[in-house]
Specification:
372 residues; transferase; single chain; pyridoxal phosphate binding; 16% strand; three-stranded antiparallel sheet; alpha/beta; eight-stranded mixed sheet; globular; Aspartate Aminotransferase, domain 2; 16 strands; 38% helix
């Protein structure tokens, strides 16, 4: 049964369908002129010189790491709380993710504990902006420079945010983004890599297209990671509406903030001045999270848990299929048991917001049925 209030509802409609049909009638379906236009438009939006469109945010991370020369024998610092793809990309290129704890107020990588995780094999740091809350880039950048490490931004949650007046995702030599269906804007599936470096951009494009430097001449072991012009057509249309999507999501976040502040329910927050969060996730912290989530589901309200455990507890790492190591992560252990991500989409009505808030208040305070 579909929930009456979904966790996410992508804003797709007739204009997206029209964009797809126009791509069909132009008789160019694979990577072509629309992909070029989408790259140029996103580069302008992100204040970057180059944008390289790919088939997913996950493969964007793989290609970025390969372009940085990461491989077997290397270690890469990764936050213990992030989507699996952040660490899986490190593993797929043959390196070892080293999981480090996060800050309690925003679940972003804690610069204070990274130094203890470094080793002679450490090549770099991958960080995210959890739910769109800006990470402490200045401190991460200073630490990376002091130790001769690369800093790669997995900006899958970051579209629409600002850091000291600049778009989140424009701070590092390489950054990646996802346009999955649940993101702020979508291509249905798709991703992008951003850089200001001409040589890095050239290498990224080689890896995207089977390592092909000329027709049927292959200078690298690349990927078939091309974005189709159909996906790019959707992306171009979505980009035209991005500010409206962001405004709608921020309206919901402000309403949640007012309600949960009055109710005394803990939420994540943005502690950094002169920054603006991207409205991707809205998160509350509840001691009886699982029972509240089950109660919400009974009421037709869909939620997510991003993420249910520190990544080093995922079976692929815990059981040793992929090597990893981790530092003590008390914050990640504690908050992964309390975090709950609430419905958030631009068309969410005030009545739907009130229904979510009132249901959480009732379930959080009232008798909770064991085993729900």
């Amino acid at each position: 049964m579909n929930p009456s209030i979904p966790w996410s509802r992508p804003d797709v409609g007739d204009s997206d369908l029209k964009a797809i049909m126009e791509a069909f009638t132009d008789d160019w379906l694979t990577m072509g002129p629309r992909t070029d236009r989408f790259e140029q438009a996103m580069a302008r939006r992100m204040s970057r010189c180059h944008a390289v469109a790919v088939s997913s945010g996950s493969v964007a991370l793989d290609i970025a790491l390969r372009t940085l020369g990461v491989g077997p024998g290397d270690e890469v610092i990764v936050p213990a709380i992030t989507y699996f793809a952040t660490a899986a990309a490190v593993s797929r290129v043959g390196a070892v993710p080293v999981f480090v704890d996060v800050q309690p107020q925003n679940l972003n990588l804690d610069a204070d504990v990274i130094v203890d995780a470094l080793s002679p094999r450490t090549r770099g740091i991958v960080y995210i902006d959890y739910g769109g809350l800006p990470a402490d880039f200045d401190r991460l950048d200073a630490l990376a420079r002091a130790h001769g490490l690369f800093l790669l931004h997995d900006a899958a949650h970051s579209l629409g945010g600002l850091y000291h007046g600049h778009p989140l995702g424009s701070q590092t030599p390489l950054s990646t983004m996802s346009f999955h269906m649940a993101k702020v804007m979508t291509c249905v599936e798709g991703g992008m890599i951003f850089t200001d470096d001409d040589q890095l951009a050239h290498t990224l494009r080689l890896y995207r297209n089977q390592g092909e430097s000329d027709k049927y001449i292959h200078s690298k072991l690349g990927y078939n990671a091309r974005m189709t012009d159909i996906s790019a057509a959707i992306g171009l249309n979505q980009l035209n509406h991005l500010d409206r999507y962001l405004d709608g999501r921020r309206r919901v976040c402000r309403a949640y903030d007012r309600h949960f502040d009055q109710l005394g329910i803990d939420t994540l927050s943005n502690p950094h001045p002169d920054t603006r969060a991207a409205p991707f996730l809205y998160s509350v912290l509840l001691d009886e999270r699982d029972q509240v989530a089950a109660g919400l589901k009974e009421r037709g309200i869909d939620t997510r848990v991003c993420y249910p455990m520190p990544l080093y507890r995922q079976p692929v790492y815990l059981e040793g299929e992929a090597p990893s190591r981790h530092q003590p992560c008390p914050v990640s252990e504690r908050i992964s048991k309390r975090i709950l991500n609430l419905p958030l989409f631009p068309s969410m009505s005030d009545d739907q917001i009130d229904q979510v808030v009132h249901s959480i208040d009732a379930l959080n305070q009232g008798p909770l049925v064991s085993g729900l």
